[in-house]
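help with this record:
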Amino acid sequence: MKQTDEKNGEEQPKFDLPVNDTNKATKLKILSFARPHMRAFHYSWWSFFIAFFIWFSIAPLLPEVRETLKLSKKDIWTTNIVAVTGDIFCRFIFGAVTDKLGARLPMGFVLLAASIPTAMTGLVDSLTGLIFLRLFIGIAGSSFVMCQCWSTRMFDKSIVGVANGLVGGWGNVGGGVTQIVMGTFLFPLFRDVVYDGDSEKAWRIVCIIPAIVAAGTAILVITTSEDCPE
């Protein structure tokens, strides 16, 4: 929507929030989902939340994975390190990519890319396979870069610190929620109800659920939001 500027007669964008002279919002309206500012705000934290969810989706399942694949504690720690290493490397890359393309497309790409190895968790049959799986899922952690960049481009300096704190903080909650949803709800559900007590079948299939959610979020982000107010 646009409105006419009384001073020069030119059409200007009309926003749901008050904005500064560069169209960055000067206020937050948490319960609003209006485009572009608050839509980007909510997509930013939710995307980061889901990224954390798929990044750590295998964590509550590692005792079962370790038993199935006959791995040692050292092996599991190695895969943990690899998962974080992938994240660190990708954050450097996506920092530059976001400067060029904005946050929306890289965020969608990261979620789609990380959802693929997440869905393939059940195919792992060795330590090497688990290492490569967690390495590629680690790309999800780089979504922090897009999360912060997105809200920074949407909000004025008078409120951007609060906006960044909220989207980053709410997104990080995904790591904890993963433990609850995967470890105490989905895995037991698949094991006890779907597969009649078969733990191996349960952990090999259950990660498909967060992968589907991540892919759906990616499509939504790409098709129904903006990189900046204009």
